[in-house]
Amino acid sequence: MTSKTQSAAHPVEASVAAAALAGLSAHPKRLPPWLFYDEAGSRFFEQITELPEYYLTRTERAILTAHASEVIVQAAHGQRLRLVELGAGSADKTRLLLAAAVAHQGKVLYEPLDVSSSALDEAKARIEREIPGVRVAPQILDYTQGLDGLEPDSPGERRLVLYIGSSIGNFEPRTAERLLQRLRAGLEPGDSLLLGVDLRKDEATLLAAYNDAAGVTAAFNRNVLVRLNRELDANFNPQAFAHRAIWNAMESRIEMHLESRIAQRVRLAALDFDVDFAAGETIHTENSYKYAPGAAEAMLAEAGFAPVGSWTDGRGWFAVCLGRAE
Ligand code: AVI
Asked: Is the beta carbon of 48 within 6 A of some atom in ligand 1?
């Protein structure tokens, strides 16, 4: 967990302070994407998932609607299954898998892992109310550090870890590989991992998904500056930064940036730190990697998960891959 230090005005989250200081001192400037997800940012993200241009969520949901039972049967492999989710639950998509697990084995234990207890409490109340047969046991855990801290499987039980929603795509390939290896190290042979990844497709479709007509993604991107204003007593004018989404074909990723419309100096008072922007200078706020067909399966295999199944939609836009720990 992050520690808090005091500033004159209010407590400053040390991880936020460190990320802002390092990122805004770097060349080119950058901020890590986890900074998006304060309360307002999480709300913007929920709105993004419903945008007409943001095909990811509805495409993955369609895949799971068609194949949830198959996923559960394959993962269970004749044993009782227990579901762990990295993140506090992707709402209706998780629900499809939980309902399939209840249909398959009567009752199921569901353990969402997150760093924030409020997101977990909400997930627990909602899911237990809506799907009888599911017992929710939330765990406050930073899964990027591995799964130590989870109870081991009971005899006759297997674990299915859900890492859906293309969340892995926000990590650099090396970091993503290391994360999968860490997850594998925390599992027993026979346990499995379900990975949802976004696939490469035509540039116009990709760009539209990250540059929607209603401007929700732009607001999501700029919200990081609003957060720094609040938490670090900064004086960013968010409207003085343009939202930019670009397709980097070499790296196979969508990049999000905030581009300074003018030459300006911004003060982060809680850090006693001033930062200068030239007109047109950018802050790189996010990468969203798009995988070639077969790449996610290869990455799973590399981390020690044997391929069990891989499902996609009719257009081949998104893939959900199941790997079993060997
Ligand atoms: C959370 N993650 C998978 C989203 C993505 O598509 O990379 C975050 C996002 N950024 C802009 N729109 C959505």
From this structure: yes
Model confidence pLDDT, tens digit, residues 156-200: 999 999 999 999 999 999 999 999 999 999 999 999 999 999 999
pTM above 0.85, yes or no: yes
Dmax (CA) for the chain in angstroms is 63
DSSP state, residue 87: B
Q: Is 282 in the pocket of ligand 1 (CB under 6 A)?
A: no
| Res 66: pLDDT | 98
- Mean pLDDT calculated for residue range 59-78: 98
Residue 326 to residues 118, 191, 199, 260: CA-CA distances in angstroms? 35, 8, 26, 49
Which has the higher per-residue pLDDT, 294 or 154? 294
The amino acid at 107: K
Please determine, for residue 90, whether its predicted confidence score (pLDDT) is greater than 70. Answer: no
- Tokens at 241, concatenated: 């930064």
156 C-alpha to ligand 1 centroid (Å): 37
Residues 218/224, Cβ–Cβ less than 8 Å: no
C-alpha 169 – ligand 1 centre gap (Å): 8
How far is it, in rounded angstroms, from Cα 42 to Cα 240?
A: 23
Whether 164 is in the pocket of ligand 1, judged by its Cβ within 6 Å, is: no
Residue owning tokens 């006759």: 156
Residues 147 and 170: their CA atoms lie apart, in Å, by 19
Q: Which one-letter amino acid corresponds to residue 124?
A: K
> Where does the chain show beta strands of DSSP type E?
4-6, 11-13, 29-30, 80-86, 108-114, 134-136, 139-140, 157-163, 192-198, 241-248, 253-260, 264-268, 273-277, 282-289, 305-312, 318-325
